[in-house]
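Summary for the funding panel

The consortium committed to producing paired sequence-structure records for every protein in the target list. Below we show the first two records in order, beginning with the earlier of the two.
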Amino acid sequence: MNAKPLHGWVAAALLALAGQAQAVDLLESWNAARNVDPVFGAARAGVDVGHSKTAQARALGLPQVSLQAGAGGINSYNKINHAQFSAPGMGAADSASFTTKTDLGVDVRLNVTLTQSVLDAERSTTQRQLAKQAQLAEVQYSAEEQQLMLRVAKAYLDVLLAEDALDAIQRQSRAVNEALDSAKERFKEGDVAVIDVREAQARADALDSQKLEAESNLQLAQAALADISGLNGQLSRLPEAADLQRFNAGDLNDCVERAKRSSLALQMQEIRQGIATDEIEKHRNAHAPVLNLVAQAGGEELRGLGGGADSGLINHAVSVGMQLTIPLFTGGLRDAKYSEAMALAEQSRQESEAVRIRAAQAARTAWNGVNVGQARIKALEQALQSAQTRLDATGLGKEVGDRTTLDVLNAVQEAAETRKELNRAKYQLLLSYLSLAASAGELGEKQLTEVNAVLAEAEKY
């Protein structure tokens, strides 16, 4: 067997395997993106940060235990004059003097202290803030998860749209090249004027330039999807006969109210507003009494190393009691911090209102995208049918001499562009449907699976 037939069999086998390869669908792209997208990875790490905030809040309510130890050299001289002194069998003295002295001594100290907060308004406020920061991390994770779904869906549909744009140009290019070849042959035979050849050639040259741009756009779209998901390959497509009427936007007012109530962006901002409000309480309580339970155990031992005249000291003690601290003056720091917290809380409140308005606007935009999209798709489907009818009629007209080559090329372009716009409208509707769910914080794998099922239906047609 020679090499050429062998190569032919190998090529045929590879083409057969490629035809059997299963297309990458939207759900697979989403699941892959969860593992490779760095933005979502940062959100996942943020959840771990939130867990540490929970542990910090819990730690503030537990006892704090500390150990203090020290040792060092010491020279000590102490003298007490005019002291009163009395001892059994020794009488009393009104003007006694005592002197202790230690040269080149060693002083060793060891203390263990346990402190348990009993009343501390500032600490309690900090605990609430830490708990809210942990909650914020969880909501941020959910928000990034939904945003990743939208980014993957947009990148996926952008690839399909770029493929459609290239396909539209290729359809026109094939028709133009056929028309050009026909015009050249008929010009040689004297059936058409040279203008037909030149018009077809000019249209072919323009399409070659557009094809290069479309191929570049497709490569960029494929690279963007690969960057976010790590996947390459053929994608599941949307069939022409797919029924998109199943994607119902529901009632507008209901969608807007859900967005104003449950938007994840709004939830995050309201948590931030709560943290800012707690900051007011924290600085308002800066002069509040602080009551702690304090227990101590330890001692001190001093030994002289300089000779018999050196004094020594041994002191061991255990104490348990309550410690009350009342801040009296902070130099105006408390008032300045309190004023700052008030301003920040008002700023946060206004930002919450702005986020609520944006959430409602996003819901309206997405709702219109679904409902207007449904009507636009129907109109474009009718337009495509009309364009195809015109193309067929123009082709027949050219055969009998009633239409020119330019008329046919214009009809081909109109049909190809209408088909591309129809597909664009379908992709926009699908993305609007996902965005509508995201506006109310409800986007999940359920909605993504619904869209993916429509794309996967391409294999049935």
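The next record, for a separate protein in the list, is shown here:
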Amino acid sequence: MIKKLAGTMSMIVMTAALLAACAGGAANGGTQQQSADAGAAGTDDGASGAIKKLGDEPLTLTFYSSGPTFTDVEFKTMIADPIHKKYPNVTIQRISPAATTTPEEVLSTQTPDILFTSVSQRLIRTGAFEDLRGLIKKFNFDESRLKPIAYNYIKDATKGHGDQIYALPFNVNQHILYYNKDIFDKFGVPYPTDKQMTWDEAVELGKQLTRTDNGVNYVGLVVDNLQGLAKSLGLAYVDRETGQAAIDTPEWHRVFELQKKIFDTPGYVAPDGTWNWTRDNFMKDQNIAMRASWLANMVGPLEELRQQGVEFNWDIAPVPNFDDKLGTTREAQIHSISINSQSKHKDEAFQVLEYLLSDEGQRTIARNGRVPAIINPDLEKEFGADIPVLQGKNVQNVFIGNPMQEHYQHPYEADISVRLTEAAEGMAIHGLDVNSAIRQATEAINKDVETLKTTIGQ
């Protein structure tokens, strides 16, 4: 009788303990902050229904970046190290395929858990993006903390796919004007100021610095060609509804005319025919006086170069714009973080995303030269504080002028952008006038569109 009573009491105690544990687990997972404090990833552990914490066992999450510049140093500083510090059992391992491998090939043969991209229709078509709505709800993620310019672009980019949310913004990539102070000093020309210039003012300044000296061809102003200039006005390449070329407009004519004016600067095109000046010309050859370009496109690589012992005297100024657009800069590019729809660690991966978008995580990226994606003006005051290459630079110029939300990128846009490069080359090398360049590019784009309709639809 005593043994029977003892067994019954034992069962009661065990049942009570189990119920208490379940109740406690539900309470601890009730808010984003509580979940983060507990380290809970929210993954169901088989039939038991127990909550599996990030700290229970070693976990490796794979990471793949496609599109945006994201150096290995940036990956380590902004993602791998902070996550390992937050969750010591978690390792973020970067997948680095060969440069010739397309994103489609990577995503069809591998299953990276976390994706770092600029959300595009091309990548959405791969089916690799998890719809994050369920995870956002499960972890009570506060979407109101995200900058509208960033989050609205992502949501706009996925229209036509229902109400899915395929990504969260990681950083806002803005444009600035880089300039080589050594070239300005060499030719006795005053540096750009902290005041935003018009494009006409920038072109005139560039003319003073475009010359050949001791066999070196110096170029005064480089603007990332037609594609870069179009971002000053937020211009789409193709019509959103019809998919036809949309470059024969008054706004696009302004862009072409400005680009032609830059190309026609004596000495811009080198004697060997070089016209498409790039990041390497600014950083490594150091023959570009001013380059209007993305923030992320240059800061990370310049820091890597510094670590290799290569430094020069450069600084940043507000990016110019057309005279009636002063006060705005260019379209901002949104670098986003996503979860692979085939990942076996979706809940854990979302916990990683959640931390990267916390004040602490976003402070890390701000101090290392990226503009945060969350609403917290105090973080901008710390911009660049931890990255040596930005020490002593006029980093406040990053925030002069309001960036625009990037235009909706039609599924055909990435495929037909080569036609704008061809148009630029035609004006730079072959003497095409603006009207001819636009007409030829329009015809080429519309032919491409007919082909693309049969291959990717829309």
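Regarding this second record: Residues 59-172+333-391 form a domain with the D-Maltodextrin-Binding Protein; domain 2 fold (CATH 3.40.190.10). The CA atoms of residues 424 and 430 lie 10 Å apart.
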